């Protein structure tokens, strides 16, 4: 090693050690990093520093914690046989018009149960308008789709099947296609007691299977469960900032890391090529223009690109946008009296995070991913 490279190597090591020393010894909201590590890893959220919440959020706030057990609805109780049937249906392209597109075409296990594309590609490679959300932990969702138009997985199941851009099949056709496949008969018998194929049974089986798609324990879960050394100092700082200065928990709260509400982030592209009015298209209420459902942050590092339109390709970009308070479109002269002109959420405001603070928050967010996000599933589909 030449003297020049030795000098560079020495400088890098000193910089790393100095940064670590400063982080360990600097006070953050009157705490040292080691104190924050002990408090957050205690397993007792009541001892954590108070979150930085807007007054409108404080009353209904739910703390970020480990995921509870999935609850299956009384109208569609869990059975292993029903989940197995749903699994086969989920991966079967014969539900689509071209018999080439399955649910898994847009929700690939190896891509974090999303598809890695800006927007979904459906039947005959038609492109949709919105980004494909992950299905991991979808059993905790209170509404489905970016605009919340389905209130349960059972209600949601037929949507992609009948959507002309996605699977492009009428449900009665899908029912006939599955009925004609002899290999499905024993699966329906095991799940429902006889081999009758109906739309309701397909929907319930798909919903049951999707509720089994759940994260394993992430670094975050292990850390707050008492494993202190699971987190680096940067990740500890990121967790603290996520709840305090960065104000992320105002929307990304609860064990699901989503308030399950709808907000306008300033990305409506009103009057432009990528225009999408979001929740307004379902409710017709002007205050809902540009609002989209808060996505879960669990597994988010593995499910890009991000936002409802998939236009943001890296987490750094997202952090920078939130740091300046997101986009706040201004009215043009001809829009002065436009009652539908979208308003960015009042919850968003400049955060003034430093570069190291942004990096720490991003490092923390990456700890919300588990090994579940990139698995392979081997399945032999029923034969005719």
CATH fold name of the largest domain: Cytochrome Bc1 Complex, Chain D, domain 2
Q: Please give the CATH architecture of the largest domain.
A: Orthogonal Bundle
Q: What do the pLDDT scores average to? A: 93
State the domain count: 2
Q: Strand pairing plus helix content: what structural class?
A: mainly alpha
SS summary, helix count: 15
Identify the CATH homologous superfamily of the largest domain: Cytochrome c-like domain
H and E string: HHHHHHHHHHHHEHEHH
Topology (SSEs and partners):
Elements: H1 3-25, H2 33-40, H3 55-58, H4 80-90, H5 103-106, H6 153-156, H7 158-162, H8 171-179, H9 185-192, H10 199-210, H11 219-224, H12 233-243, E1 262-264, H13 280-283, E2 291-293, H14 315-323, H15 355-366
Antiparallel strand pairs: 1-2
Helix pairs in contact: 2-12, 4-9, 4-10, 12-15, 14-15
Give a written overview of the molecule.
This protein has two domains: 49-67 and 217-372, Orthogonal Bundle (Cytochrome Bc1 Complex, Chain D, domain 2); 80-215, Cytochrome c-like domain (Cytochrome Bc1 Complex, Chain D, domain 2, Orthogonal Bundle), CATH 1.10.760. It contains 15 helices and two strands. It has helices spanning 3-25, 33-40, 55-58, 80-90, 103-106, 153-156, 158-162, 171-179, 185-192, 199-210, 219-224, 233-243, 280-283, 315-323, 355-366; strands at residues 262-264, 291-293. A two-stranded antiparallel sheet has the order 1-2. Helix 14 packs across helix 15. The N and C termini lie far apart (67 Å).
